[in-house]
Design brief:
about 35% helix, 7 strands, binds FE2/S2 (inorganic) cluster, about 15% strand, Fumarate Reductase Iron-sulfur Protein, Chain B, domain 2, Ubiquitin-like (UB roll), alpha+beta
Length: about 250
């Protein structure tokens, strides 16, 4: 292969018309500054318009472009092709999710899990929302790391527990639950911890830590889940000893 080219090997699959997934190879022009998403867009624009994949922002913000690149969950907009310059760039849909078409996976299950931890500020009295709640820098610092999550789901693709047990609420939803529990404006911690203090909640996590390795934004979901285990246990003990102090 000339130095001016790079070989992409992309998983193709249309459930309903294809009997099984297969790889398709594309030899495309190489640029030193190209990211994997650039390669996919070159294929779509110049070689094969039928290739399906998601993307939007091209700057690591929207979280929509995740795929497995040479076996590792990555944002395709943030992964340089030069990392794999001496070999083939193999692109698969994110592991552990059903495939809708080619690299596009079904995210409904993740969205349901996210909704189950109420990923927004909860106030017991909705009238409270009309008033101002000042946040000091130290208040924001308490949840800043978890708030960086962009819902890209790379952590679910990396998680062996989610692979073996799809009911597991999983890393990103747990990290975002902690983000709101730590927010001084929020009053929904009891309900979130009741949801997470279950086998399919935080207790399924065996602290492998691959989720934190895969996160492109520096969130540490594995640590967040261990913190939630502590908070859920504390809540459970309070519920036993001081039942009126805990809702539900
Ligand atoms: S395209 Fe938005 S994060 Fe990659």
């Amino acid at each position: 292969m000339p130095d001016t080219d790079v070989l992409f090997r992309v998983k193709r699959y249309r459930p309903g018309s294809d009997s099984r997934p297969r790889y398709q190879e594309y030899r495309i022009p190489y640029r030193n500054d190209m990211v994997v998403l650039d390669g996919l867009n070159y294929i779509k624009d110049h070689v094969d318009p039928t290739l399906a994949f998601r993307w939007s922002c091209r700057m690591g913000i929207c979280g929509s472009c995740g795929a497995d690149v040479n076996g590792h969950p990555k944002l395709t907009c943030g992964t340089y092709v030069r990392e794999f310059r001496r070999g083939v760039v193999t692109v698969d849909p994110l592991a552990n999710f059903p495939i809708i078409k080619d690299l596009v996976v079904d995210i409904d299950d993740f969205l349901n899990k996210l909704a189950s931890v109420t990923p927004y500020i909860v106030r017991k009295d909705e009238g409270d929302l009309k008033q101002e709640y000042i946040q000091y820098p130290e208040d924001v610092e308490a949840y800043r790391q978890q708030s960086l999550c962009i819902n890209c789901m790379l952590c679910y693709a990396a998680c062996p527990v989610f692979a073996a047990s799809p009911g597991f609420v999983g890393p990103a939803a747990s990290a975002l639950a902690l983000r709101y529990i730590r927010d001084t404006r929020d009053e929904g911690a009891d309900e979130r911890l009741a949801r997470l203090n279950t086998k399919s909640g935080v207790w399924e996590c065996t602290f492998v830590g691959e989720c934190s390795v895969a996160c492109p934004k520096g969130v540490d979901p594995a640590a967040a889940i261990q913190t939630l285990k502590f908070l859920a246990t504390t809540r459970h003990m309070r519920r036993l000893l001081m039942p009126k102090s805990v809702s539900r």
